[in-house]
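Troubleshooting entry. The earlier prediction with iron/sulfur cluster gave an output that would not parse, so I re-checked the input for stray whitespace and re-submitted. Clean input:
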Amino acid sequence: MNNIESPIDVETKINQLKSEAKVCASCGLSLTRKHVIFGNGDPHTKLMVVAEGPSATDENTQSPFTGPAGDLLDDVLAVNGLHREEIWLTNIIKCRAAVWNGRQLKNRPPKASEIKACTKWLSGEIAIIMPHVILCMGSPSAKTIMGKDFRLIEQRGTWFNNTGHASFVSATYNPAFVLRMEKKEFVQGRQILINDIAEAKQKLTENPLASQLTLF
Ligand code: SF4
């Protein structure tokens, strides 16, 4: 356990938050979404993984990190002896960001206003779960959690203990980004994911260097 609340309290609170998020209409994405894709996994975990937003596949499965990118995540977790059921997987926005392109919805990056509107749900997840370690996947989630000046290329793999969100916070690539790499780069990108998750796992055993202070 990573906080003083009973497992039942944590589970009740996260389910309550999920119920509230399911009917959220705080930004325009509520008009194009099929479903709100809330975080998933073990709410009693000490490790939270945060990416950008749900994909079209996630909308169909109603779970985050599904489809090819989710398969790659499962793969790099498994190399580290981890399974998605024992960590918490979530996104900075809970509805798919997409625009109509002819007769189809096409993915687009979330707007700053959408990310801002949605941080209440991520903030709630962090406040309830109180993770010891947060691993951001991709630049948008890293900037949301570690500040807009964060630079993924230069600072990937650096651990921060002053974010106020968890004892240890870092960022790695989004598996969806690694999947788009050419063969040789893909092998390197997959290895980077494996290595960064290994570091996150190691951080789970280290003492906190800073307490949680504020949320967003
Ligand atoms: S993206 Fe977030 S803030 Fe916007 S409608 Fe969905 S749940 Fe609400």
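This one parsed fine. The beta strands are 40-41, 47-51, 88-91, 98-101, 104-107, 133-137, 168-172.
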